[in-house]
Write a structure and sequence with these properties.
Among the domains are: 86 residues, Sandwich (Immunoglobulin-like); 85 residues, Immunoglobulin-like, CATH 2.60.40; 76 residues, Sandwich (Immunoglobulin-like), CATH 2.60.40. Helix content is 17%, strand content 32%. The protein has 721 residues and is an alpha+beta fold. It contains ten helices and 45 strands. An eight-stranded parallel barrel has the order 1-2-3-8-9-10-13-14. A five-stranded antiparallel sheet has the order 15-16-17-19-18, with helices on one face. The protein has a five-stranded mixed sheet with strand order 24-25-20-28-29, with no helix packed on it. The radius of gyration is 26 Å and the shape is globular. InterPro entries: A-amylase_bs_C (IPR012850), Alpha_amylase (IPR006046), CBM26 (IPR031965), GH (IPR017853), GH13_cat_dom (IPR006047), Glyco_hydro_b (IPR013780), Ig-like_fold (IPR013783), Secre_tail (IPR026444).
Length: 721
């Protein structure tokens, strides 16, 4: 019975962690973005970088995101790029690397973010099946051999004159026969892909990525790469109409990625391709009809990228091609939750362009977003009517041959064969909005903890990247101080200080002049942690305090916190209870050594705020989003006393091969368990200072349970790379 109780207890603890958003997610909340897939199959002329650059103003009027075709050099001049060879060379069939960077900068200037199409499931050799090119980025050479190929790859069965037997681990996903299956369990492979994403973001200027063929490797690796890359948006191509399988992949990424809503795509096919059967457009969510697909679920709809067709499904030889009423299908996805994606082949078609733009305008007028609530008003074979609520009003969409009269307080925005859309806005829309306000921000870097001879600052704001890696050279003001002024910052400024090789972590959400230095610690990628300092003498600013206004009338307030390494600072979920200090305000004061923290406020019973990440100074919040608000009064920090219980230290975290455990109590045994609660390793009679080999573990989140000689258990966690 004791063993059974122990297992149940672990599963409960792990379930709580699984429900807790711990990693920074490339999934925007309540996203109003609309995406354009900027290419079709073999669209080398319509989608080359020069053509798209000339179209950037028109694209920017309608789309917030554009998904570009693979841009890496695959040693051909007429290839879509889905059999990659080079990672750090972005000369492709669509144009040169210089033209690509010009395109992305022009898109950013017109309000559109660029999404890269990256193919990391498989790779081709440079001259034969297995000779991957040697590439260098930021002073690091990336070289792969046969150990980078999964052991079951079909190359092993070929009759070749050179050594071609793969020595990697078994494939963690589906096999791909046209190129070598990449072994994502290999640390060298992982480091190369992390560097590749860093290159795409910081050198080329991409804002996010679409992962090709994610069925080919386990979803936890997507989480690893996204946590390293910290992009604006991630979307995976999990090509399957099975809702449970697609949402299972999202879960496997630790909710760090969206996914294309193939279940919704196939629902559209079923509803339109063989005459109307519009009941296919709705699925039950509980007892109520909702738009079909991932978007029918309140939780998963924010993770959905909806679409009608793409470069694969839209080909004339593809059985998944949509052959029905194209504009009615776009009326459906542009009036539903999720982030809608319009295919270039449809948007460029003169029969559709104007009407698609009108549907986009209607969505924007109502302020629909990825988590909008929908009421399905009618659902039958010949009619679908739904009302979607946005940030600026609501929208009614009618699809089908049956008649429908919208309420008189709604205005018809657009209509066509068997579809119509009406809107009711809370405020009159401004036809010509004023330019987004910008600000001037100066950042300074106190270079007292590095040996950097020069300091660069790479930066981006809410409109996109402000420079290419490694950024602008900062002015040396003497006495280890370096400065740079950004004159036109849109929204928040985000920076990385670097010397071209070494760098800090991302420093985000800067909204005023600020000064920074580094600590001597690094994250799992070797990037230096930062700390905000006094702009006069470089001394550390006051300890961090955070305050929360209990506008939700929660009976209890808890604070759950973690640092950049994933280490918990206020205990396991739901964290530490905090007390009221002033008229509905609750405060927590961190130790002076804490200089960068992430926070979730919650009531300990299922209700919580969103992640508040990257806090480096005293801040105050309210609501569940939550909103950054003015503090009610001077909030001071008091250093906390040490916990008198067992102090457990686990490092490094994340870990690749060996993990060190330091315990303040004599240890009886140590157990390591997976996220599912399965014990993977058990060590008895270990020392208080113990080094454990975890190199055999698959990448992911693990829990470590230390039992001291009194029987008391202390639970920590670590990430295996």
């Amino acid at each position: 019975m004791k063993k059974s109780y122990y297992t149940i207890k672990l599963l409960l603890i792990f379930s709580l962690f699984a429900l807790t958003p711990l990693a920074k997610s490339q999934v925007p909340s309540q996203s109003t973005d609309i995406m354009l897939q900027g290419f079709g199959w073999d669209s080398y002329s319509a989608s080359n970088w020069a053509t798209l650059t000339s179209m950037a103003p028109e694209i920017g009027q309608n789309f917030d995101l554009i998904w570009l075709p693979p841009s890496g050099n695959d040693l051909t001049t007429n290839s879509m790029g889905y059999l990659p060879v080079f990672y750090f060379d972005q000369n492709s069939s669509f144009g040169t690397q210089a033209e690509l960077k010009t395109l992305i900068q022009t898109l950013n200037n017109n309000g559109t973010k660029a999404i890269a199409d990256i193919v990391i499931n498989h790779r081709n050799g440079e001259t034969n099946w297995v000779d991957f090119p040697v590439e260098t980025y930021n002073g690091t050479t990336h070289s792969w051999g046969l150990e980078a190929i999964c052991e079951g790859d079909e190359v092993k069965d070929q009759n070749l004159a050179y050594d071609h037997t793969p020595t990697g681990n078994p494939d963690t996903g589906e096999n791909y026969a046209a190129a070598r299956d990449v072994d994502h369990t290999n640390v060298n492979v992982q480091n190369t892909i992390k560097a590749y994403l860093d290159f795409l973001k910081n050198e080329i200027g991409y804002d996010g990525w679409r992962y090709d063929l994610v069925k080919g490797y386990e979803g936890g690796y997507t989480a690893m790469y996204n946590n390293s890359a910290n992009a604006y948006l991630s979307v995976g191509e999990f090509w399957d109409g099975n809702y449970d399988l697609v949402t299972g992949w999202i879960d496997a990424t630790n909710a760090t990625s969206t996914a294309f809503d193939f279940p919704a795509k196939y629902a559209l096919n079923n509803a339109f391709n063989n005459g109307y059967n519009l009941t296919e457009l709705t699925w039950l969510s509980g007892t109520e009809n909702q738009p079909a697909g991932l978007i029918h679920n309140d939780y998963y709809k924010k993770y959905a990228i909806t679409f009608v067709d793409n470069h694969d499904t839209g080909r004339s030889d593809n059985a998944s091609r949509f052959t029905g009423n194209v504009l009615a299908a776009y009326a459906f996805i542009l009036s539903s939750p999720g982030i809608p994606c319009v295919w270039m082949n449809h948007w460029n078609d003169a029969n559709y362009t104007t009407k698609i733009n009108e549907l986009i305008e209607a969505r924007k007028l109502a302020g629909l977003h990825s988590e909008s609530n929908v009421t399905v008003n009618q659902s039958a074979q010949d009619i679908y009517v739904a009302t979607a609520t946005g940030n600026n009003g609501s929208l009614i969409v009618k699809i089908g041959t049956a008649s429908y009269d919208a309420p008189t307080d709604y205005t018809l925005q657009t209509s066509g064969t068997d579809y119509a859309v009406w809107t009711k806005t809370a405020t009159d829309p401004t036809p010509n909005p004023e330019p987004t306000p910008t600000s001037t921000i100066t950042v300074k870097f106190y270079n007292n903890n590095t040996s950097w001879s020069n300091v660069n600052v790479h930066a981006w704001d809410d409109s996109g990247t402000l420079n290419t890696w490694p950024g602008e050279s900062m002015t040396n003001e003497g006495d280890n101080w370096f400065s740079y002024t950004f004159s036109s910052v849109t929204g928040y400024l985000n920076v990385i200080f670097n010397d071209g090789t070494d760098q800090t972590i991302d420093i985000t959400n800067i909204d005023a002049d600020a000064c920074f230095s580094t600590t001597t610690t690094t994250d799992g990628d070797g990037h230096l942690h930062h700390i905000e300092v006094n702009c006069t003498d470089g001394t550390t600013t006051a300890p961090i305090s955070v305050a929360y206004q209990n506008t939700q009338a929660w009976s209890d307030i808890y604070i759950y916190t973690w640092d950049n390494t994933g280490a918990e600072l206020t205990g396991t979920w739901p964290g530490t209870a905090i007390t009221e200090f002033q008229d509905g305000w609750y405060r927590y004061d961190f130790e002076a050594s804490v200089n960068h923290v992430n926070v979730i406020f919650n009531n300990g019973d299922g209700s919580q705020t969103g992640n508040i990440e990257g806090i480096t100074s005293t801040s105050c919040y309210a609501g569940t989003t939550p909103d950054y608000v003015e503090c009610p009064s001077v909030v001071t920090s008091v250093a906390k006393t040490e916990n008198t219980g067992n102090q457990l230290e686990i490092f490094p975290n994340p870990v690749k091969n060996f993990i060190q455990i330091l315990s303040s109590q004599q240890v009886e045994k140590v157990s390591i368990a997976s996220i599912n609660g399965n014990i993977t390793d058990l060590f008895e009679a270990v020392n208080q200072n113990t080094r454990i080999d975890v190199s055999h573990l698959s990448p992911g989140l693990y829990f470590i349970i230390v039992q001291d000689v009194t029987g008391k258990e202390t639970i920590g966690r670590f990430i295996k790379q």
